[in-house]
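Amino Acid Chain and Its Fold in Token Form
===========================================
Purpose: to set a sequence beside its fold so the mapping can be learned.
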Amino acid sequence: MKKKLLSIGLVAALLVSAFAAGCGKKNTDGDDKKTDGKVKEIRFMDVTPNPAREQAFQELIKDFNDKNPDVKVVYESTPWDQSHNKLVTLGSAGSLPDVFIMHQQWNAEFTSAEWVTPLDDYIADWKDADKIIPYVKNVLMEYDQKNVYGYTFGIPDGLTTAAMFVRTDWLEEAGLTTEDLETWEGIFEASKKLTIPEKNQYGFAFRGARMGSEQMGMYMLAELGGKLYEEDGTCRINSPEGIEAFKKYCALYKDGYAPQDAINWGYTEMVQGFTSGLSGILNQTSEVVATCEDSMEDGTWTTIPFPRASDGNIYSKADSYYMAMSNQSKNKDEAWRFIEFMLEPENNRKLSEACLFIPVMEGAENDPRFTEGGMKGFVDSMNDPTFIREPFYGYFPELGEFMETFYDAEVQKYLLGQQTAEESIKNISDYLTTAQQKYMQESPDTPIPTSVRTDGSEVK
């Protein structure tokens, strides 16, 4: 039976509203490109801009505009650190872009606010729908969206997962090989051996600021076997295993295997710490490959698959930013035409190559651009038969607040010695338990966040 997060009444109301606004429906009165002579403007916003990505978008948008004279797509962008607040402000004001890049941690918040358009009617008529690779279709679309919310509201534009960037020259000097880093235990041991404070050299690029808690959580969830909640919605983080994992990961910072300033490191600082020779192991996603290629000497670094947990499985993230259509758009058919164009297999490979993503459409599985060099560690992680996608922290509307503020603050309080590990873990666990159980009462058909395999099956 299909699980739904929203009540039947709310889903029905959404669909009626969507139908009335023309969302999720194709025009049936002739050629989509016939207009009254006016060019319809589509605003498109990216939330993770960088020069290569922006150039790829601009080139593809120009191609689309040239081929669709009745539509003009206007490109906008906002820095990642400001993106959530920016979109919330626009959504509250009723002025969201027609199409925008959406992070999955905003799913519950944006769907609850009815800011996204159901896309299933469009997908049903999409000529390239059968070219979506299995993980993206089974997990990111069917499991994460339709299984939870009852409809599809975003299509991934490129797949990214985590891998470890490592300084191979440092490993050699320490008498280590990449095989020594195949497990989390190996990562911890190598971080100690690679740390030489008198040389201003530290083993691990610890992320202590924004979203650092999520990186810590990847290890903690792995040591919990990927199981975050009990059946009654009680969070399992506040357990002996959870507390031990929390302490062990945070010891990378507290015991001096990361620079003291790493308490303030966000994405930019931790990447710079690795590329500048300050730290030797970095947990990051594939866009950092380009940074390493541009700023580091060949042969001094590589990527390796994400480390195995104590049970032998690889628990990691494998997600994407979605191309979502605003429910506030007045030109939904034209907005879909743009999304469809961007996801044509060749266009998707162009964007993925520029952004260093794994393409979401078939055809790139034998392409050396994606299976060799810096991308290899990421592809190897995804292709590993033991790969398990860790659970979300929840589907409740408070998830955005939890991930953006509360979680990081509680971890930092422990790192700074302001409270004990037990206090931080209790506060984190209590927040999640309260939010999860409240939502389960309001939406009894809500699935409990669960780890999932590539085929879409849950890990019990």
